[in-house]
């Protein structure tokens, strides 16, 4: 069984980016700038934002986090986004989701300048993804493709089964795998006889948010399993796949933690760098 080590792979990418960014700062006189907007007190979001801040600092990206109270009015939040759109020193804007109830996240995402949309969630960038045009790709799915590439796992011609159809993971992952010539099936909570479908998968990606959901009976011998889930349990962070049970059956699997999560952050740095490069060259 091959462990798809996202922590190690991400560290290699981050080291490369750090060197590249140091050179670019010399050439252009300023570091890449990332603005993170965090509204409210959602505990997992606080952790994600702290991890992103640390990764930016380490890579030489100037990150600024705007922490706003949960009762921030929609108009005020939109005003912040517009200010950041106009700022020359900001190359990327990330709105940490989920937003507290009462705030309209899609309206906010729509307002982010597509050229600064480092999460790739703006409808223009989602459309570009669908059309297979260049543009920022959502970090988790793009990180998964980078991880598969790192281990020489080519989706071309393979049956890729995705469980979960969210806008941030399942749907964009389906597009990226399709663009790489995978044969893609997307499953969700209304899918009938899910195990019969996951058992056909050469690559099975699970992103639903239920601890240990994907069991050995649901995959075929020699499959590759990508576990996107992050579930907080009394035993620490757990994925959506039954890692211990699957180990002896699969050809390769991502651990949780240390699999897809670190790749997501590495991809955010990459997207910020790409946005910066495009803007300083303009
Ligand atoms: P969402 O809650 O937005 O979507 C969950 C999806 O899973 C939905 O499409 C839902 O179907 C489907 N689903 C739920 N239950 C079942 C079931 N029993 N059988 C089949 N499908 C089911 O989740 P996200 O995509 O935002 O996140 C999924 C997981 O990935 C979470 O654990 C999250 O924490 C993690 N995550 C990890 C990241 C990382 O960096 N590693 C980044 C982002 C998320 P339906 O559409 O029908 O409701």
UniProtKB/TrEMBL annotation:
<protein>
    <recommendedName>
        <fullName>Bifunctional protein FolD</fullName>
        <ecNumber>1.5.1.5</ecNumber>
        <ecNumber>3.5.4.9</ecNumber>
    </recommendedName>
</protein>
<dbReference type="InterPro" id="IPR020631">
    <property type="entry name" value="THF_DH/CycHdrlase_NAD-bd_dom"/>
</dbReference>
<comment type="similarity">
    <text>Belongs to the tetrahydrofolate dehydrogenase/cyclohydrolase family.</text>
</comment>
<dbReference type="Pfam" id="PF00763">
    <property type="entry name" value="THF_DHG_CYH"/>
</dbReference>
<dbReference type="InterPro" id="IPR000672">
    <property type="entry name" value="THF_DH/CycHdrlase"/>
</dbReference>
<dbReference type="InterPro" id="IPR020867">
    <property type="entry name" value="THF_DH/CycHdrlase_CS"/>
</dbReference>
<dbReference type="Pfam" id="PF02882">
    <property type="entry name" value="THF_DHG_CYH_C"/>
</dbReference>
<dbReference type="InterPro" id="IPR020630">
    <property type="entry name" value="THF_DH/CycHdrlase_cat_dom"/>
</dbReference>
<feature type="domain" description="Tetrahydrofolate dehydrogenase/cyclohydrolase NAD(P)-binding">
    <location>
        <begin position="138"/>
        <end position="278"/>
    </location>
</feature>
<dbReference type="GO" id="GO:0005829">
    <property type="term" value="C:cytosol"/>
</dbReference>
<dbReference type="GO" id="GO:0006164">
    <property type="term" value="P:purine nucleotide biosynthetic process"/>
</dbReference>
<keyword id="KW-0028">Amino-acid biosynthesis</keyword>
<feature type="binding site">
    <location>
        <position position="230"/>
    </location>
    <ligand>
        <name>NADP(+)</name>
    </ligand>
</feature>
<keyword id="KW-0378">Hydrolase</keyword>
<dbReference type="GO" id="GO:0035999">
    <property type="term" value="P:tetrahydrofolate interconversion"/>
</dbReference>
<keyword id="KW-0486">Methionine biosynthesis</keyword>
<keyword id="KW-0554">One-carbon metabolism</keyword>
<dbReference type="GO" id="GO:0009086">
    <property type="term" value="P:methionine biosynthetic process"/>
</dbReference>
<dbReference type="GO" id="GO:0004488">
    <property type="term" value="F:methylenetetrahydrofolate dehydrogenase (NADP+) activity"/>
</dbReference>
<keyword id="KW-0368">Histidine biosynthesis</keyword>
<feature type="binding site">
    <location>
        <begin position="164"/>
        <end position="166"/>
    </location>
    <ligand>
        <name>NADP(+)</name>
    </ligand>
</feature>
<dbReference type="InterPro" id="IPR036291">
    <property type="entry name" value="NAD(P)-bd_dom_sf"/>
</dbReference>
<dbReference type="InterPro" id="IPR046346">
    <property type="entry name" value="Aminoacid_DH-like_N_sf"/>
</dbReference>
<keyword id="KW-0560">Oxidoreductase</keyword>
<feature type="domain" description="Tetrahydrofolate dehydrogenase/cyclohydrolase catalytic">
    <location>
        <begin position="4"/>
        <end position="119"/>
    </location>
</feature>
<comment type="subunit">
    <text>Homodimer.</text>
</comment>
<dbReference type="GO" id="GO:0000105">
    <property type="term" value="P:L-histidine biosynthetic process"/>
</dbReference>
<comment type="function">
    <text>Catalyzes the oxidation of 5,10-methylenetetrahydrofolate to 5,10-methenyltetrahydrofolate and then the hydrolysis of 5,10-methenyltetrahydrofolate to 10-formyltetrahydrofolate.</text>
</comment>
<keyword id="KW-0658">Purine biosynthesis</keyword>
<keyword id="KW-0521">NADP</keyword>
<keyword id="KW-0511">Multifunctional enzyme</keyword>
<comment type="pathway">
    <text>One-carbon metabolism; tetrahydrofolate interconversion.</text>
</comment>
<dbReference type="GO" id="GO:0004477">
    <property type="term" value="F:methenyltetrahydrofolate cyclohydrolase activity"/>
</dbReference>
């Amino acid at each position: 069984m091959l462990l798809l080590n996202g922590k190690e792979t991400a560290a290699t990418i981050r080291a490369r980016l750090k060197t590249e960014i140091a050179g670019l700062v010399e050439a252009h006189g300023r570091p890449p700038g990332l603005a993170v907007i965090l509204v409210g007190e959602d505990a997992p979001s606080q952790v994600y934002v702290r991890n992103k801040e640390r990764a930016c600092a380490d890579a030489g990206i100037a990150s600024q986090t705007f922490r706003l109270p949960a009762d921030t009015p929609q108009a005020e939040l939109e005003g912040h986004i517009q200010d950041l759109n106009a700022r020359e020193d900001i190359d990327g804007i990330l709105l940490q989701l989920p937003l507290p109830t009462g705030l309209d996240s899609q309206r906010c995402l729509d307002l982010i300048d597509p050229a600064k949309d480092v999460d790739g969630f703006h409808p223009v960038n989602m459309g570009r993804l669908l059309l297979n045009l260049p543009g920022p790709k959502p970090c988790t799915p793009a990180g998964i493709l980078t991880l598969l590439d790192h281990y020489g796992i080519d989706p071309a011609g393979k049956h890729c089964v995705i469980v979960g159809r969210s806008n941030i993971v399942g749907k964009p992952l389906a597009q990226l795998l399709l663009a790489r010539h995978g044969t893609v099936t997307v499953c969700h909570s209304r899918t009938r006889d899910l195990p019969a479908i996951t058992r056909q998968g050469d690559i099975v990606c699970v992103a639903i948010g239920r601890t240990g959901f994907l069991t050995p009976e649901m995959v075929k011998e020699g499959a590759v399993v990508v576990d996107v889930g992050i579930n907080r349990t009394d035993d620490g962070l757990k994925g959506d796949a039954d890692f211990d049970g699957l180990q002896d059956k699969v050809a390769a699997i991502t651990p949780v933690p240390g699999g897809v999560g670190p790749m997501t952050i590495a991809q955010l740095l990459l997207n910020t760098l790409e946005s910066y490069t495009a803007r300083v060259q303009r």
